[in-house]
Amino acid sequence: MIKLNYKIVRSPKRKKLTITVERDRSIIIHAPEGTAEETIRRVVESKRQWLFDKINHTQKYQAPHAPGKELVNGESAPYLGREYRIEVTETKSGMVEFSRRFMIPLIQQSRRREVLRDWYLNRAKETILPRVKRYADALGVKVAEVNIVRNRYRWGSCTVKSNVSFNWRLIKAPMFVIDYVIVHELAHLMEGNHTPRFWNIVRANCPTAEKAKAWLKEHGQILEEEV
Questions:
Q1: How many C-beta atoms surround the C-beta of residue 94 within 10 A?
Q2: Which of 22-31, 95-104, 168-177 has the largest mean confidence?
Q3: Helix (H), strand (E), coil (C) string for 107-161
Q4: How does DSSP classify residue 4?
Q5: What are the DSSP E strand ranges found in the chain?
Q6: With 181 labelled, which of 76, 109, 137, 215 sits at a CA distance of 20 to 30 A?
Q7: How far apart are CA 186 and CA 134, in angstroms?
Q8: Which carries the bigger pLDDT value, residue 130 or residue 227?
């Protein structure tokens, strides 16, 4: 029998045992403090087939962040679900500017991939943070801290301390996808597991949830490119 390797993360605030599969195919067991190793082992064994199906998913768990294409005049980059032309040119600010196209300053040509990534990160903060507050108010949940992160494997995450984080690469996706990921993570503050109640909360607050899940399944690898 093939052995399943997993990492156990215990917390005194956690009431239920949950299992997650990260985008690098690693298995994380989140367990209440004091949970016996044998109990965890039995739960993992009961989920063996489900876990193998997850880690062998042909799309969701591809090698992350395929190298992006070279940034030159005439190429394009995604933003909020659409592709926009890249132009390396003089800009008034000396920084990346956007007006129906990406304008990367000549002075930053040698760092064009890095400065465009920084631009994405700033737009992600400007766009995602206010929407998290709006959806948190609608759901009636209290969020301790919101972060935009350079996460390697997940679109979003939440902790038992009510902190939520979102991958800056989401800014490349359509707004309905961003909203879905936000609602998904906030719903976990109400229901830790992917139970029917959890999905009812998500669908009630994000009617395009299924469309967003399908979009991520088809286009997620594009978002994971370096830029």
A1: 11
A2: 168-177
A3: HHHHHHHHHHHHHHHHHHHHHHHHHHHHHHHHHCCCCCEEEEECCCCCCEEECCC
A4: P
A5: 7-11, 18-21, 27-32, 76-79, 82-89, 97-98, 102-105, 145-149, 156-158, 163-167
A6: 76
A7: 11
A8: 130
Residues linked to residue 164 through DSSP beta bridges, in sequence order:
146, 158
Contacts of 76 (CB under 8 A, 6+ apart): 83, 84, 85, 86
End-to-end, the C-alpha distance of the chain in Å comes to 41
Instruction: Decide: helix, strand or coil at residue 81.
Output: coil
Instruction: Answer for the pair 77, 116: CB distance below 8 angstroms, yes or no.
Output: yes
Total Cβ atoms within 10 A of residue 5: 8
Look up the pTM and report it. Answer: 0.69
Looking at residue 67, its pLDDT comes to 44
Where do the domains of the chain lie, and which CATH numbers do they carry?
7-55 (no CATH), 76-223 (3.30.2010.10)
Q: How far apart are CA 105 and CA 41, in angstroms?
A: 55
